[in-house]
From TrEMBL:
One of its GO terms (molecular function) is DNA binding. Keywords: DNA-binding, Transcription, Transcription regulation. GO terms for biological process: regulation of DNA-templated transcription. It comes from the Bacteria. InterPro entries: cNMP-bd_dom (IPR000595), cNMP-bd_dom_sf (IPR018490), HTH_CRP (IPR012318), RmlC-like_jellyroll (IPR014710). Signal peptide: none annotated. Residues 11-101 form the Cyclic nucleotide-binding domain. PROSITE patterns: CNMP_BINDING_3. SUPFAM superfamilies: cAMP-binding domain-like. Gene3D superfamilies: Jelly Rolls. This is Cyclic nucleotide-binding protein. It comes from Lachnoclostridium phytofermentans (strain ATCC 700394 / DSM 18823 / ISDg).
Amino acid sequence: MIFNNEIPSILLENGMKKTFNEGSNIYKVNSSVTHCYFILSGTVKIYIDHKNGRRSILDFFGSNDWLGELSLFCNEAEIKENKVLQDVECLEFDKDELQKLCKENAKVSFYFASYIANKLLARSYRMSESLNYSLDIRLASFVIQHQQKGIYSIPHTDVSEYMNVSYRHVLYVMKQFCELEILTKEKGKGYIISDIEKLKRIQDK
């Protein structure tokens, strides 16, 4: 998700650096939110496991994204399943202290209001994209958004669930990207982006 409003310096001053390793959870499921997190690097997926055995991935969060910010303005009924896909470095904030800062500082409050509004628009646009754009365009955009220093490593199973397409379809498009020398598959790392400009051209079709 692209969010252009710069984080207020007063927020950066109050955050404490923290690291979560790949495979760990940032929040415990069914627990209350006590802290909010501003991601500096890495990737987290948020998902729901349904009673019928199926899974829905709600979103992926990376650099410059927040986790837990909704709890500043409303009571979240329950914590969703979450998993760190790539080691996360972040700033940790006490929720109560951050809530107090929002009440006292209009700039901070407006920053969060803008961020949440942007998140809502981004999710609405993603739903529209799924109905109107082919998978190669959507996947090119996704790879660009979630690459880390030129390396993309989100599992195909997660992408297929997120985009509501088959695993085979994702695999087919990724294979095409490799044949076009846009991506290079590297064992143990995922995919190295060999030609970012070609990928951007597909995204902008």
